[in-house]
Structure formats: structure tokens, C-alpha cells
Write a structure and sequence with these properties.
The protein has seven helices and nine strands. By secondary structure, it is of the alpha/beta class. The chain has a six-stranded mixed beta sheet, with helices on both faces. It has a three-stranded antiparallel beta sheet with strand order 2-1-4. The longest helix is centred in the last third of the chain and has 16 residues, at 164-179.
Amino acid sequence: MLTRQLISGVTIDWARISQDSYLRDIPAISGVDEINFTHNVTFFVGENGSGKSTLLEAMAIACGFNPEGGTRNYSFSTYDSHSELCHAIRLKRGVRSAKWGYFLRAESFYNVATMEEEYSRGPGGRPQHFHEKSHGESFLALVQSSFRPGGLYMLDEPEAALSPQRQLTLLVEIDRCAREGAQFFIVTHSPILLGLPGAEILSFDNGALHAVEYEETDSYQVTEMFINNRELLLRRLLED
């Protein structure tokens, strides 16, 4: 993969975050002043509530994306829930700049799809009719129509709408664009997506943010344990 990142890192100015902010209680990022990125695909992994989406959201807003998702041209809002981290974060930009990008989060996909339809009705637009497709079909259709070489993409749990087969399709799309200069930041629990060769995996578990190997992720270990020891595991979990 190409090594010239669009975003090579972020810095956090904690002086801009209030003393009573919950952000200071997130072990993975509390007190962290700088995070560097060295790959064209970076995965954020960790348990629910570990700060993955909080950091991704702040980075997306700092990049100029709408907090609920979409391109930099989107300006809709249904509920403001983003943290103050976006005001304290600064991007370290690489030698190239992204002329296109997308922030896609599973929890607000319905709203993004609605706005996609609305915006596409303008001059020169090509309506995609996402709401006429299933959730997974519309999600993948939006991805395939939005991913372009050299772009910047931030995805929050994209596997939520996709079957295992469709996750493999998404993995291929990510790899194709990354090889052509795109950069991805992805929050995921999917052992399928995490298997992408050449990606960096940053864990938000067990203290400070740190890099891990694929086989060290909970997503891989729990899935492997379930597949290889399903009957024994379920018997222990479900017995009275």
C-alpha cells in the first residue's frame, strides 16, 4: 500500500477540554497528546464505551465532515451529541490533500441516506433511491458510489448492516481504494474486516491506545473460540 498518508496523526490539546469532562475518564485517550498513523487503513478496536467512536467522530468533525455523516458538503442535524474533543483535536496532514471524502456511521445511516436522496434531486444529481433497497443493500450501494481513489473515509461500525458475504465485498472495496491512495479510519468489531492485509489495528482496551496484531483482537479470539468450541462454550454460558 502507499505510505503517504492524507492524515499522518492528530494532537490533542487537553487545555481545551473541561476538567469535569467524561473524556478525561476514557483510559485509552486520557492524557494522550499525540497519535500517529502510518498506514492507509487504520482500524480502531475495543470494547463498547472504550472511546473508539468518540475519537473517530472528533477526527471527522476536525476534517470538516458533518457530525452525523456524509460529505463535507452536508449540513443537516437531527441531534447534536458529539463531544468537545473535536475542539481540542488538531490534524497532522500529510504531503497530499484529499479532494473527496465521506464520514459514514451505522447509527445515523438512515438520516444520511435520506439526505443523499434529497441532495441528489438537485441539478446534475442522480438519485440512488436508497430507501427502496434493504438496509444492507443501500449501505453497500452508498459505499460503492462514494469510495474513490485518493479520498479520505471514516467509517463507524460499517459491518452493522452487512452480511458476512457483503463484509467481504466491503473489504475488497477498501483494499482497492487504499491501494490507489485513499486513507481509511474504521471503527469495527468485525473479524472479517480486521483481516485486511497491511492494515494497522489500534486497540482502545487495557489502558492507553496501542497497536495490536489481528490475532490479539477480541473480535478474532472470541470468534475463533466460538467456532472451534461452540458446544462447550454454549453449555457453560447457558447452564443454570
